C-alpha cells in the first residue's frame, strides 16, 4: 500500500519518538526505584553500576520491597518495542536491493520486539533467548544489506552492536565478568538505540521529498 508523503513522513518519525519516550519513562522508573541489586541487595535507589535495566520491571525489588518503578518501566518498554516494530516494518525501504531476505528481516525484527513485550521476572530467560534468536537473525540480514548498499557508517555501528550483544549473551550464560554486566548492558543498549535512531534518520533522508 502506497502512502502519501505526509503519512509517510509521520510514520517514519514514530520510531524516534517512541525511543525518546522510552528514555523519558525509563528515567522516571530509575528515579522511583526503591533499591536493591544482585551485586548489592541492600543498596537504595537505582545504580548504573549494579542494576540491570530489567530490575525496574519486577513487581518487587531484589531486597523484597514493592517496586514503585515498574509501571514506568513497563510503559517505557511498550513504547520501545512498538516503535521498533514500526522501524523493522519500514526498514526494507531503506535498501536499493530488493531481496526476499529483507522480508525475513522485517518479520524476525518485529517478532524479536513482540517477544520482548512479554518480558517479566517469571519468563525473563526464555523471553531473552527467543527474542535474542530473532533479533540476531534480523540484525545479521540488516548488516549484510547495509554492507551491500554501501551504508558504511551504519554498517560499522551495526557490527559494534552485534559484537556487544553477543558479549552480553556470553557473559550472562558463562557468568564470566558477571559483576560488570550491568555496565556492559547499558553500553550495549545505548549503542543499539543510537544505531536504530541513525537507521531511522537514514530512512527519513532517503524519502525526504519523495513523491509517490
From TrEMBL:
Keyword Transmembrane among UniProt keywords: yes
UniProt protein name: DUF998 domain-containing protein
Domain of life: Bacteria
The keyword Transmembrane helix is assigned to this record: yes
Annotated keywords: Membrane, Transmembrane, Transmembrane helix
Ranges that cross the membrane: 12-33, 71-91, 103-120, 126-147, 154-171, 183-204
Amino acid at each position: 500500500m502506497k502512502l502519501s508523503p505526509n503519512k509517510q513522513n509521520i510514520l517514519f518519525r514514530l520510531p524516534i519518538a517512541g525511543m525518546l519516550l522510552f528514555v523519558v519513562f525509563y528515567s522516571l522508573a530509575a528515579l522511583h526505584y526503591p533499591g536493591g541489586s544482585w551485586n548489592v541487595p541492600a543498596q537504595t535507589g537505582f545504580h548504573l553500576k549494579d542494576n540491570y535495566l530489567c530490575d525496574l520491571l519486577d513487581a518487587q525489588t531484589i531486597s523484597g520491597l514493592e517496586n514503585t518503578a515498574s509501571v514506568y518501566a513497563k510503559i517505557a518498554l511498550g513504547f520501545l518495542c512498538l516503535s521498533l516494530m514500526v522501524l523493522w516494518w519500514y526498514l526494507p525501504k531503506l535498501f536499493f536491493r530488493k531481496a526476499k531476505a529483507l522480508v525475513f528481516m522485517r518479520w524476525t525484527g518485529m517478532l524479536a520486539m513482540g517477544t520482548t513485550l512479554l518480558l517479566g521476572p517469571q519468563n525473563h530467560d526464555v523471553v531473552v533467548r527467543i527474542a535474542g534468536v530473532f533479533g540476531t537473525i534480523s540484525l545479521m540480514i540488516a548488516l549484510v544489506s547495509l554492507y551491500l548498499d554501501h551504508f558504511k557508517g551504519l554498517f560499522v555501528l551495526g557490527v559494534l552492536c552485534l559484537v556487544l550483544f553477543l558479549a552480553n549473551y556470553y557473559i550472562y550464560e558463562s557468568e564470566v565478568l558477571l559483576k560488570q554486566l550491568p555496565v556492559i548492558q547499558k553500553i550495549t543498549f545505548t549503542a543499539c538505540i543510537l544505531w536504530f535512531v541513525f537507521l531511522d534518520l537514514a530512512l527519513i533522508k532517503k524519502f525526504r521529498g519523495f513523491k509517490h
